[in-house]
């Protein structure tokens, strides 16, 4: 991904330009955001989630959430996606779909430089109040990545877990359930701050691959 290193509320360091998406997204509470210089994906709301598709594209949708870190569940499927790429490296780190959860406070380890980068990104993000840390769950990658690792785009403020590598069978629903508080402790240390937003994104601009995916039944509940 060839992007400027500025934090968004999605999955990497980049400054978003908010875009007008399918009208069904707004009715469902989602806002569509584009990456600078990257062809946007096509998102649309479904009965209980969203569908996304495109080719050699990348963008995201996000919406506000509130409350304490709890367990998050959803189901997703990929009909088409990019080949395996190493998600630990900048450039070439394509994925069919990812789900990211943004938090309202910095990790205790975030230093002056990281906080300054965040402040610069916020100055370019307009009215979108950016999360100060993000947990990212990806469908993509080689499957050889560490169990969780820092996003190469987020300067220590994003932690990635590959739940389904790119070799996962297409055309099947997979159910997921993650403990956000536990993953925060493993990723950043200490107790998780309140939730701020959730985002769904995709990125295939390096491989130029076609993709088609769905994410449904997104639920927060006590663990």
Topology:
Layout: E1 16-19, H1 23-27, E2 31-35, E3 42-46, E4 49-55, E5 58-64, E6 71-80, E7 95-103, H2 112-124, E8 133-140, E9 149-150, E10 158-164, E11 174-179, H3 180-188, E12 195-203, E13 210-221
Parallel strand pairs: 8-10
Antiparallel strand pairs: 1-2, 2-5, 3-4, 4-13, 5-12, 6-11, 6-13, 7-8, 7-12, 9-10
Describe this structure in words.
With 223 residues, this protein is mostly beta strands. It has one domain (16-221): Sandwich (Jelly Rolls), CATH 2.60.120. The chain has helices spanning 23-27, 112-124, 180-188; strands at 16-19, 31-35, 42-46, 49-55, 58-64, 71-80, 95-103, 133-140, 149-150, 158-164, 174-179, 195-203, 210-221. The strands form two sheets. The protein has an eight-stranded mixed beta sheet with strand order 1-2-5-12-7-8-10-9. Strands 3-4-13-6-11 form a five-stranded antiparallel beta sheet. It is globular.
Tally of individual domains: 1
Task: Note the main sheet.
Answer: 8 strands, mixed
The low-confidence runs, each spanning 5 or more residues with pLDDT under 50, are 1-20
Helix content: 10-25%
Q: For the record, give the distance between the C-alpha atoms at the N and C termini, rounded to a whole number.
A: 35 Å
Strand arrangement in the largest pleated sheet: 1-2-5-12-7-8-10-9
Secondary-structure element pattern, one letter each: EHEEEEEEHEEEEHEE
CATH fold naming: Jelly Rolls
Secondary structure tally, helices: 3
Q: Judging by the overall fold, what is the CATH architecture?
A: Sandwich
CATH class, named Mainly Beta
**Overall shape:** globular
Average residue pLDDT: 89
Work out the number of β strands.
Answer: 13
């Amino acid at each position: 991904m060839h992007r400027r290193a500025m934090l968004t509320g999605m999955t990497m360091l980049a400054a978003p330009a908010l875009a007008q998406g399918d009208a069904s997204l707004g009715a469902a509470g989602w806002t569509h955001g584009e990456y600078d210089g990257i062809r946007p994906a096509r998102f649309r709301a479904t009965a209980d989630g969203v569908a996304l598709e495109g080719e050699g594209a990348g963008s995201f949708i996000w919406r506000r959430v509130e409350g304490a870190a709890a367990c998050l569940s959803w189901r997703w499927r990929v009909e088409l996606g990019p080949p395996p790429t190493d998600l630990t490296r900048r450039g070439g780190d394509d994925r069919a779909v990812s789900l990211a959860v943004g938090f309202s406070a910095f990790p205790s380890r975030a230093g002056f430089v990281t906080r300054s980068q965040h402040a610069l990104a916020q100055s370019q993000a307009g009215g979108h109040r950016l999360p100060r840390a993000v947990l990212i769950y990806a469908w993509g990658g080689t499957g050889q990545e560490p169990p969780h690792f820092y996003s190469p785009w987020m300067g220590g403020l994003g932690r990635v877990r590959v739940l389904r590598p790119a070799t996962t069978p297409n055309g099947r629903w997979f159910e997921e359930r993650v403990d956000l508080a536990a993953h925060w402790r493993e990723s950043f240390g200490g107790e998780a701050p309140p939730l701020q937003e959730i985002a769904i994104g995709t990125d295939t601009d390096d491989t130029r691959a076609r993709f088609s995916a769905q994410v449904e039944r997104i639920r927060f509940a006590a663990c």
